[in-house]
Amino acid sequence: MSRESEADLPGGDALPGTLSEALRAELIAFRRDMHMHPELGNQEFRTTAAIKARLEKAGLKPRVLAVGTGLICDIGTLDETPLLGIRADIDALPIPDTKIGVPYRSTVPDRAHACGHDVHTTAVLGAGLVLADLDRQGLLPQPVRLIFQPAEEVLPGGAPDAIESGVLDGVGKIIGVHCDPKVDAGVIGLRPGPITSACDRLEVTLDGPGGHTARPHLTTDLVTAAAKVVTEVPALLARRVDARSGLAVTWGRIEAGHACNVIPQHAELSGTVRCLDLPGWRAAPDLVHAAIDEIATLHRAKSEINYIRGVPPVVNDPAVTELLRDAQTARRGSYAIEDTEQSLGGEDFSWYLEHVPGAMARLGVRTPGDTTRRDLHRGDFDADELAIDVGVELFTAAALLDGGRD
Fold this sequence. Notes:
This protein has helices at 21-36, 45-57, 117-136, 159-164, 222-238, 278-298, 318-332, 386-403; strands at 63-64, 71-75, 83-89, 144-149, 171-184, 188-190, 193-194, 198-207, 211-212, 248-256, 262-263, 266-275, 302-311, 315-316, 337-339, 358-366. By secondary structure, it is α/β, with parallel strands linked by helices. The strands form four sheets. An eight-stranded mixed sheet has the order 1-2-4-3-5-16-6-15, with helices on one face. Strands 10-12-8-13 form a four-stranded antiparallel sheet, with helices on one face. A two-stranded antiparallel ribbon has the order 7-14. Mean pLDDT is 93; it is low at 1-13.
């Protein structure tokens, strides 16, 4: 398949499937309702029912996933042509919504759509409604599968369960977006190759006989052992893996002891393991285990390690990344695209890419001109709702352009 030059791409007016004002208003209302009623992973029953009802109203036949939340919906004639998968994640985070003066603030205590999944979901829903209308007009060149996935925020994510239930059956490639509060609304960020990092969780316990701080030489100085694990394991790993893999252990919790003159018998540490590439991620468990055991043994501490696999890095397929570039160019022009850096955050979209080629774009949600520093997973997170339009346009254009290629 040869890539068209930018000059050969049709302009936004040449591609069918633009948003009507009525649908735009409906989608904004849908997003705000979802934002007001956030649900945690595998508990998204209200959200699933709302998506299902709207798709059925459009004459489509969505199917709820076997886990009980999330759903898929096929649009177009299912023949020999592989489907284009368009994925959204539908769960929220267990944190309070701290926005002030916003009428669609979360109504559920300690629950918030602070990662933009409500925007992702609304964009995929809107794209589905537009594509269904095009299909009725005979203008949809290939079948599309909408994937509304639960539990993205729950390690190792809801994607493995969704894949097990068959969401990728017949899918030839898959696309998605993730909100980025550092990018202006109206713009997307693209990067071929790794765009997120792998993220695993690490829990370590250290044990020893305990004793008096006056006589550390007669026992296991467990606090020192724990401190050495914290400081020396990352340094040891830096000499045992290619630096370009970016393998990093960062500790978030350390707990040991209750009295200043008592050497404790038990210590606990927990943190995350992040990695920039797939080879490093696949080697990480054995490397981390060996490094911790080596340091613990040196200090006569008994170690127990619980290495919890999270997600591999999202590695964007170059050809699918170019499809997204072409789609955004066709709708909004090349000026509405910027290169993006690899994030150290994790995303379970990566599991789909273990099976089919695909790509994820950064979806700008910052109001142009806003200089406030914002980030994901914060209670004050919000999105400029222009991002919904951009997501719908991106997905619909990608379906139309991809279906017209060899």
